[in-house]
Design a protein that fits this description.
The complex is a heterodimer of chains A (about 90) and B (about 475). By secondary structure, chain A is mainly β. Chain A has one helix spanning about 30-40; strands at about 5, 15-20, 20-25, 65-70, 75, 90. Chain A contains one helix and six strands. Chain A has a five-stranded mixed beta sheet, covered by helices on one side. Chain B is of the alpha/beta class and about 475 residues long. Classes of the chains: A mainly beta (about 90), B alpha/beta (about 475).
Chain lengths: ~90, ~475
């Protein structure tokens, strides 16, 4: 999946967040999922069983497949969590 | 301190919940409206983030209409709690807290105690549940690969986050959303290879004239989407569906195998074609968000067209539990106008139960809404007749296909559990852990019920309704304890 920020949307102020040790640009109003997808990150979460990593599925806070760790606390829904300056995000790898 | 008591608590701030709260508050009841997201409006009205601006945006989702409704709520003194989830509701207890202690005692008033996240508790005499819907998934091989999404999720990414999630996409499944999502993807610059509709072009056509008469907004809206599809040369293939997603967990979706289906939705082998795509949007209509009504113990029935469970209700919109009302798409998916009408009916009936309105007055007010309700029900009936879920759609689920993503349960494991004696949802859950993961069965139980019925040769009612336990949404341990009452 090749995701692209659409230029016709005027975004909020840009800032950086740290994702798996790398600095990524995010914009005010974006969810963590949007920032990760725009950076081309393929998988967010590994459910407990088997090798079936997931990314964004329902996109509206129901399926719990996009869970990431934020500032050391696990199980944040990337699709419902707003990116904030200085946030440290870890995907399941 | 005792938890604050409201006459009516409305859960879900979409079109139905807003209408219900406005109707009830106009009758001078004490009303609280709770919504899990950061703004009212539900999926239908979801606005762009405040920090975003898109100057040329037409008011196509009626945000002005939403503002007017929200203003009406504040004029009628409806209290709002946004960013708040209800994780459990218990009846017949009273909760006191303060000084680091929470006590739960029996309560003769038989009110409902709602436990909330962030931590809080409130009491309600009457509940109106308007929790809406989400996309209804039916698995196929590869459906858990990154790059397979629900159409609703893709639409949300584009329209509410300004993120185009694909270069080349296909949109598959049933329901009116597919056409809208394909049109959105195409007009934002993605190449939409095709829309795959497993129903025939003529399905339900005989219902269209009567159902669409008077629905001029909808005629216009549909024409707009179809025009956009024509302009971007997106073909609609009828009696086609997605057979398989191609890719690896590491690469995500790299392709799709599509093919023809017969009149009962069964895949026709030998008709497969491979396509190179990086996004597969697939869903089969919508699934009502029934977690709360299940948890409360309301009676549910299996709707054969939606192929999922819906809470039963009478013409007053009351469930089989006294004081528990439902409104909107959670009752069976009818769209925004029907949701608003049902919200009004629920609001009127709640006032009647409270004794604010006499039975006669309530009847008169409900009767006035009947013609509009009939018209909207006719429309919903056409939609779900045309796009009813067929037995054959489940035929693509092979033994290796995951049914329950959270617990990693495959269809093969479910079928094996039947061989080992599982004969309903409950016994299959005990044997496989299906539905016991973090989403609590929101994506797997309706599909598992279909497979169980098929595998054990039993009727869907014998398979039983799903169960859910509080907390019905994941809650952090600290929020289970009420340390202060706001």
């Amino acid at each position: 999946m090749n995701s692209m920020r659409l230029p016709k949307y005027e975004r909020g102020t840009p800032f950086e967040i740290e994702v798996d040790g790398k600095m990524l640009v995010a914009y005010e109003g974006e969810t963590v999922a949007t920032t990760l997808l725009a950076a081309g990150i393929q998988t967010f979460h590994h459910p407990s069983q088997g090798n079936n990593p997931s990314r964004l599925y329902c996109g509206m806070g129901v399926c719990m497949q996009c869970l990431v760790t934020v500032n050391g606390i696990p199980s944040y829904q990337a699709c419902k969590t707003l990116a904030r300056p200085g946030m440290k995000v870890e995907t399941d790898r | 301190m005792t938890a604050k008591l409201y006459d009516i608590v409305v859960i879900g701030g979409g079109p139905a919940g807003i209408a219900a709260a406005a109707e009830a508050a106009a009758g001078r009841a004490g009303v609280l409206l709770i919504d899990a997201s950061e703004s009212l409006g539900g999926h239908y009205y979801k606005p762009l983030p405040d920090a975003f601006a898109e100057p040329s945006r037409p008011d196509n989702n009626g945000l002005k209409a939403l503002q007017a409704r929200v203003e009406l709520l504040s004029r009628h003194n409806v209290e709002l709690l946004i960013n708040t989830k209800v994780w459990g509701i218990f009846q017949g207890t009273e909760t006191t807290f303060g000084g680091g202690e929470t006590t739960v005692t029996a309560n003769e008033n038989n009110t409902f105690t709602l436990y909330l996240d962030p931590s809080n508790a409130i009491e309600a005499r009457i509940l109106i549940i308007a929790t809406g819907v989400y996309d209804r998934s039916i698995p196929f091989p590869g459906w858990t690969l990154p790059g397979v999404m629900t159409p609703g999720g893709a639409q949300m990414l584009i329209k509410k986050q300004g993120l185009l999630p694909a270069k080349r996409a296909i949109v598959a499944g049933t329901g009116p959303l597919q056409i809208a999502v394909a049109a959105t993807l195409a007009s934002e610059g993605a190449e939409v290879i095709s829309i795959l509709d497993p129903s025939a072009a003529t399905d339900g056509l005989f219902l269209v004239p009567a159902a669409m008469w008077g629905q001029w907004n909808r005629v216009g809206e549909s024409a707009g989407y179809l025009f956009s599809l024509l302009r971007h040369r997106v073909p609609m293939l009828f009696r086609y569906t997605i057979f398989r997603a191609i890719g690896t967990p590491e690469t995500g979706v790299q392709g799709a195998v599509i093919g023809r289906v017969d009149a009962n939705g069964y895949p026709i082998r030998g008709t497969e074609q491979s396509l190179e795509v990086d996004l597969i949007c697939s869903a089969y209509g919508f699934a009502p968000s029934i977690a709360l009504t299940l948890h409360l113990g309301c009676a549910h029935e299996f709707d054969p067209r939606l192929c999922t469970y819906v809470p039963g209700h009478d013409e007053r919109m009351q469930t089989d539990l006294h004081g528990v009302f439902v409104a909107g798409d959670v009752t069976g998916v009818g769209g925004k106008p029907l949701a608003e009408l049902q919200g009004q009916v629920a609001g009127i009936s709640a006032l009647e139960t409270l004794g604010v309105l006499s039975g006669e007055d309530a009847d008169t007010r409900r009767r006035k809404l009947q013609p509009a309700l009939k018209r909207e029900n006719r429309f919903a009936n056409m939609i779900w007749h045309r796009w009813q879920i067929k037995q054959g759609f489940f035929d693509l689920i092979d033994d290796d296909t995951l049914l329950c993503r959270c617990e990693g349960v495959t269809a093969g494991q479910l079928r094996q559990s039947c061989a080992d004696g599982a004969h309903n949802l409950f016994s299959a859950k005990l044997r496989t852990r299906l539905g016991m993961g973090i989403c609590q069965g929101r994506y797997c139980t309706a599909n598992a019920a279909m497979l169980l019925a098929q595998e054990t040769n039993r009727s869907i009612t014998e398979i039983g309704t799903p169960s859910i336990r509080p907390p019905i949404v994941p809650v952090r341990a600290k929020d289970l304890f009420i340390t202060d009452y706001a």
